[in-house]
C-alpha cells in the first residue's frame, strides 16, 4: 500500500512545485506577459543558446541603454538639470551678477518658462558654470552628496529610487545571459558614472555620455586633471553611434531608448548583420509615472515612434507592458 501512495505523493508534489519554480525562473517578473516580453526573451534566447542558428559569442553580445527616460525618469526635467539648478543656487553668493544675468536669473527665481526660452545654449551655460573648475573626483563627490539628499517633488523619493524596475530586471537578465551592458546617455558622462555601478550594476568604464573638456596640469606638485568650462562632446542623436564607436569599438546587437535622441543609436544598431533588437520605452502611464511623446520638450518621441514598425523596433507601452514602474520603497 505504501508503495502505491509514494508515487501519488510525488505526483502531487510535482504539480504544486513546478509552477512555483516556473514563476521564480521568470527573468522579467515586472513585465506583463505578452508580445513585448516574449519578443525580448526570444531574442535573448536565440543569440545566447549554443544550439541556436543565431548564436553569438559573448564578445558580440553588446547592449546599449539610454539613461534619461529609459532607465530612470526624466520628467518634469532631466535629473542633471535639477542638479545644475540647485548648484546655481548654492554658488549664487559667489556670483552676485547672476541675479541680473540670464539664464542664471531664471534659475534663481525658478522661472522655468524663461529658462526654457534660453534653449540649449542657456542650459549649456548653466552646466558649464556649475560643472567645471574642479577635478573629476571633486565633481563626483558633489554629485554623490546631492543625490544622497535631493528628492523628486511628485514622488517624494530620491532620484536613484526612481529607476524603472522592469529595466533593472532586463539589465540583470542580459548580463546573466552573457551580454555586456553599456549606458549611452545624452547626460554628462561623469554625472552618470557617479551612480551607474551602484544603481544599474554598470561600471564607470561602461558609461558613454556627453563631456566637457579637461586639462592635465600639475598643482602644488600633484598631477591633476581639471574640468574646463567648455563642451567637448555631445552624446545625443548622431553623436551616440560616434560615442559608441569611440568608447566601445563595435556595433551593439541591441539598443534601448525612449526618444528621438536615441533614433540614430537604434537605427545604426539594427542595421547591422545578424539578429538585432531595438526597443523604445513609450511613456503612456500618467497615473504611475508620466504620459508624453510628440509634444514634449523633454524626451520628445515623434519620428522614432512613427518609424518603429517599419524598422522592427519594439515599442514598450509602459501602462500595459509593465506591472510595476519603480522599485518598492525601502
Secondary structure: helix percent:
40-55%
Biggest sheet layout: 7 strands, mixed
Mean pLDDT: 92
CATH topology of one domain: Rossmann fold
**Percent of sequence in beta strands:** 15-25%
- The CATH architecture classification of one domain is 3-Layer(aba) Sandwich
Neighbour order of strands in the largest sheet: 6-5-4-1-7-8-9
Report low-confidence residues grouped into runs of 5 or more.
1-24
| Global shape | globular
CATH superfamily label of one domain? HAD superfamily/HAD-like
List keywords for this structure.
17% strand, 14 helices, Rossmann fold, alpha/beta, seven-stranded mixed sheet, two-stranded antiparallel ribbon, 330 residues, 9 strands, disordered N terminus, single chain
Task: Please describe what this structure looks like.
With 330 residues, the chain is of the alpha/beta class. The strands form 2 sheets. The protein has a 7-stranded mixed β-sheet with strand order 6-5-4-1-7-8-9, with helices on both faces. Strands 2-3 form a two-stranded antiparallel ribbon. Helices cover 43% and strands 17% of the residues. It is built from 14 helices and 9 strands. The chain starts with a helix and ends in a 9-residue tail after the last helix. The model is unreliable at 1-24 (pLDDT under 50). It has helices spanning 2-24, 35-48, 79-91, 104-109, 112-117, 119-131, 136-149, 165-176, 189-193, 196-200, 239-247, 263-270, 303-311, 318-321; strands at residues 62-65, 151-152, 157-158, 180-188, 207-219, 222-233, 254-257, 277-282, 314-317. It has a domain at 31-77 and 159-321: Rossmann fold. The protein is globular and about 65 Å long. Keywords: Signal. This is Haloacid dehalogenase. Residues 1-22 form the signal peptide.
Amino acid at each position: 500500500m505504501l508503495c502505491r501512495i509514494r508515487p501519488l505523493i510525488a505526483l502531487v508534489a510535482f504539480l504544486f512545485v513546478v509552477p512555483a519554480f516556473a514563476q521564480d525562473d521568470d527573468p522579467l517578473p515586472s513585465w506583463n506577459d505578452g508580445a513585448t516580453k516574449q519578443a525580448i526573451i526570444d531574442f535573448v534566447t536565440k543569440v545566447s543558446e549554443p544550439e541556436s542558428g543565431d548564436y553569438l559569442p559573448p564578445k558580440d553580445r553588446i547592449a546599449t541603454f539610454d539613461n534619461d527616460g529609459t532607465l530612470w525618469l526624466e520628467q518634469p526635467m532631466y535629473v542633471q538639470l535639477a542638479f545644475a539648478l540647485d548648484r546655481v543656487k548654492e554658488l549664487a553668493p559667489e556670483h552676485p551678477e547672476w541675479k541680473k544675468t540670464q539664464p542664471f536669473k531664471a534659475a534663481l527665481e525658478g522661472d522655468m518658462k524663461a529658462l526654457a526660452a534660453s534653449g540649449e545654449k542657456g542650459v549649456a551655460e548653466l552646466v558649464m558654470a556649475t560643472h567645471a573648475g574642479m577635478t573629476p573626483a571633486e565633481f563626483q563627490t558633489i554629485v554623490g552628496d546631492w543625490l544622497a539628499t535631493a528628492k523628486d517633488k511628485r514622488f517624494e523619493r530620491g532620484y536613484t529610487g526612481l529607476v524603472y524596475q522592469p529595466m533593472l530586471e532586463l539589465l540583470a537578465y542580459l548580463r546573466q545571459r552573457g551580454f555586456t551592458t553599456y549606458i549611452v546617455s545624452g547626460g554628462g558622462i561623469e554625472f552618470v558614472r557617479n551612480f551607474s555601478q551602484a544603481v544599474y550594476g554598470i561600471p564607470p568604464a561602461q558609461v558613454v555620455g556627453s563631456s566637457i573638456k579637461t586639462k592635465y596640469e600639475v598643482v602644488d606638485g600633484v598631477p591633476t586633471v581639471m574640468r574646463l568650462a567648455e563642451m567637448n562632446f555631445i552624446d545625443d542623436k548622431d553623436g551616440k553611434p560616434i560615442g559608441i564607436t569611440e568608447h566601445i569599438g563595435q556595433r551593439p546587437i541591441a539598443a534601448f531608448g525612449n526618444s528621438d535622441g536615441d533614433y540614430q543609436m537604434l537605427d545604426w544598431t539594427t542595421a547591422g548583420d545578424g539578429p538585432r533588437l531595438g526597443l523604445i520605452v513609450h511613456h503612456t502611464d500618467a497615473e504611475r509615472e508620466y504620459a508624453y511623446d510628440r509634444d514634449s520638450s523633454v524626451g520628445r518621441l515623434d519620428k522614432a515612434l512613427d518609424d518603429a514598425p517599419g524598422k522592427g523596433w519594439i515599442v514598450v507601452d509602459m501602462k500595459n507592458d509593465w506591472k510595476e514602474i519603480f522599485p518598492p520603497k525601502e
